Amino acid sequence: MKTKWKVIIAVILAVVISVGSISAYKYITSPKEESIPLETTLEDAAELTTQKMIISDVFKSTKGNIPLINKNKFLVQYKTTVTAGLDVKKAKIKETDDEIRITIPHCTINEDSIKIKSSDLKIYDTNFAIMSIDKEAVIEVVAEAEEKAKKKAESDEYGFLDNADENAKKVIKGMSENVAGERKVVVEFK
C-alpha cells in the first residue's frame, strides 16, 4: 500500500514539475513589454484642413450575421467627423509689384479622417436576436458606415467640398494679406 501512495505522489509531483517548467519556460522566453519594438515614423505634412463635417446617421444594414436569426437585418447608428482640405505644397505663387497670385488645388476629402470608433457606433437588432452580433459582422458594419459617411461628404447635397474650397480661399488670402503690404492678393484654383 505504501508503494502505491509513493507512486501516486511521484506522478503528481512529476506533473506539477512539468507544468511548472512549461510555464516558467513560456514566461522566460516570452517578450517583455519593454522589449517589443515600437515603430515611429515622422513625415513632413503640409495639409491644410479647411472644413469639417460631423455626421450622425442611422441606416439599416444587411451586412454581417446575427446568430440564431437568418435575416441579417439591424439598424446602425454612428457618428464621425470627416475633414477636407488641400496640400499646401501644391500651391503656386506668382508675385509682381502690384499683385500676389496664389493658385491652389481644389480641396479633397481626407480619407484618413473617415474612421469610426467603436464608441461612436451603436447596433440595434431589429430581429430581436438572442445572441449578440459577432466580430466579423461589426467589422463589416463599420466599413459600411465609413463608406456611407464618405458618400454623404462627397454628395452635392451638403456642399461640403464647395465650402472647403471657399474657406481655403479665405484662409490663404487672410494669411497672405498679412505680408502683402499694398499688393492685391488673388487666390484661384488650378
The radius of gyration computed from the alpha-carbon positions, rounded to a whole number of angstroms, is: 30 Å
Report the structural category: alpha+beta
Distance between the termini: 97 Å
Number of strands: 7
The averaged pLDDT comes out at 79
The helix/strand order is HEEEEEEHHE
* Main beta sheet: 4 strands, antiparallel
Count of DSSP H/I helices:
3
Strand content: 25-35%
Percent helix range = 25-40%
- Label the overall shape: elongated
Low-confidence stretches: none
Describe this structure as you would to a colleague:
- It is a single chain.
- The protein is of the alpha+beta class and 190 residues long.
- Helices cover 36% and strands 27% of the residues.
- The protein has three helices and seven strands.
List keywords for this structure.
alpha+beta, four-stranded antiparallel sheet
Reconstruct the topology from this structure.
Blueprint: H1 2-29, E1 47-61, E2 74-87, E3 92-95, E4 99-104, E5 108-109, E6 121-125, H2 135-154, H3 160-180, E7 184-189
Parallel strand pairs: 4-7
Antiparallel strand pairs: 1-2, 2-5, 2-6, 3-4
